[in-house]
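Project standup — Tuesday

K.O.: blocked on the structure for the chain from last sprint. Re-posting the sequence here as requested.
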Amino acid sequence: MRVLGLDVGDRRIGIAISDETGTVAQGRGVYPRRGPEEDLSHFAALCRREGVERIVVGLPLNMDGSEGEQARKAREFGEALARRTGLPVEYLDERLTTVEADRVLSQAGLSERRKRRVRDELAAVLILQAWLDRAR
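H.V.: unblocked you, prediction finished:
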């Protein structure tokens, strides 16, 4: 089962897709947001092309577990994508994935400029991999 993992931000969306067995998350880049309709069309086409059966969206909860503005935006995007694709969408607490992504990228010795380019993709991989591990 192929699963799409998304790290939804205001400017960019990090993308990860699982292998066919639903075991390993693989980064698929970063999508620069263009507007609600274009964004939904892009991801609906990606789901069709890749044979995606489920979507996991990172939910950026506040440290106390409550949902703030960014979590609301991520849910709205996920719900709109579910309506567009007809696929089930699940949400995963992603409070510390960006922090973890930064840590990994710093250890890899990447420049700040390079880190910015891959941070969202790595966050999507971490979100999706956590979901896949829990699903097993």
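K.O.: great, moving the ticket to review. The longest strand covers residues 25-32. The helical segments are 36-50, 69-85, 97-107, 112-135.
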